[in-house]
């Protein structure tokens, strides 16, 4: 029997509890991101969907904890925190690094007999579409330049020395996790995968994102949008509508 969630986990943020929702959506942030990025998603989907946002160690209220710089280690740590929430059907949404983490989390959940309703993979090439990247090895200025070029963090925050001291270790750790991840061949997910990407994303081409189809034995869908790596910032209503429609549709 699955234990009932307590809502006290350091890993889970539930901004708009929706106890009557039929499905839960777990949102996994991008590199350097935090659970609060998904507050608008939670607000938009509640009370139809019970949205959980994941808070990684090393940022905001967890900034005094050691960061985890491995996707697999993050997944190993997160899955036990999610299992109590699997008393309802669960879906996963990850953006950028969060999509790769979502894939590894889905693999672990399926090994435990929990098949996610859908894995929504946003702004990230498929696990098998490897690139050699070493942004995490750059100096602070180089790392800041990369983040600014992707528009993933407010430039005003990056100009504040105190904020920088707090966020740079988490950003660097997350980049290391994403860039050192290597896909290992194994069983495909049973969960369907729905991929979303901006057509001018420098970190993931449409074809690299289309390769997510190789990682599921279920249905696959690809949605493209105008915009770059953080196309979500302008296209959120369309993405949220797609998620809502998918989660409200009966399983095929």
How many strand segments?
Answer: 7
Order of helices and strands: EEHEHEHEHHHEHEH
Portion of residues in beta strands equals: 5-15%
Structure classification: alpha/beta
Question: Largest beta sheet, briefly?
Answer: 7 strands, mixed
Using the coordinates shown, work out and report the CATH topology.
Answer: Rossmann fold
CATH class: Alpha Beta
Domain Thioesterase TesA-like: 26-247
Keywords: Hydrolase
Family: Belongs to the thioesterase family.
Pfam family, one: Thioesterase
Give the SSE layout.
Layout (H helix, E strand, L loop, with lengths): L11 E2 L9 E6 L10 H7 L3 E6 L16 H12 L7 E6 L1 H15 L7 E4 L17 H11 L4 H4 L2 H20 L12 E6 L7 H5 L9 E6 L6 H17 L4
Helix pairs in contact: 2-3
Structure, explained:
It is built from eight helices and seven strands, in the order E-E-H-E-H-E-H-E-H-H-H-E-H-E-H. The longest helix has 20 residues, at 161-180. It has one domain: Alpha/Beta hydrolase fold, catalytic domain (Rossmann fold, 3-Layer(aba) Sandwich). It has 252 residues and is α/β, with parallel strands linked by helices. A seven-stranded mixed β-sheet has the order 1-3-2-4-5-6-7, with helices on both faces.
């Amino acid at each position: 029997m699955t234990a009932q969630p307590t809502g006290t986990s350091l890993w889970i943020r539930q901004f708009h509890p929706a106890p009557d929702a039929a499905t839960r959506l777990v949102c996994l942030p991008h590199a350097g991101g935090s659970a609060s990025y998904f507050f608008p998603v939670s607000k938009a989907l509640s009370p139809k969907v019970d949205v959980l946002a994941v808070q990684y160690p090393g940022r905001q209220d967890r900034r005094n904890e050691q960061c985890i710089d491995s996707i697999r280690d993050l997944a190993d740590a997160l899955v036990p925190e999610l299992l109590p929430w699997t008393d309802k059907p669960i879906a996963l949404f990850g953006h950028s690094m969060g999509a790769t983490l979502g894939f590894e989390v889905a693999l672990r959940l399926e090994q435990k007999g929990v098949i996610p309703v859908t894995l929504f993979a946003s702004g990230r090439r498929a696990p098998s579409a490897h690139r050699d990247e070493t942004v995490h090895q750059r100096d602070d200025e180089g790392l800041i330049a990369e983040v600014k070029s992707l528009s993933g963090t407010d430039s005003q925050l990056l100009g504040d020395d105190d904020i920088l001291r707090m966020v740079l270790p988490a950003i660097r750790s997350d980049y290391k996790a994403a860039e050192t991840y290597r896909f290992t061949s194994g069983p495909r997910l049973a969960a369907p995968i729905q991929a979303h990407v901006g057509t001018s994303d420098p970190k993931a081409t449409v074809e690299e994102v289309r390769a997510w189809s190789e990682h599921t034995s279920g249905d696959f869908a690809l949605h493209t949008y105008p915009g770059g790596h953080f196309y979500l910032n302008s296209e959120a209503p369309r993405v949220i509508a797609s998620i809502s429609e998918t989660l409200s549709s009966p399983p095929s």
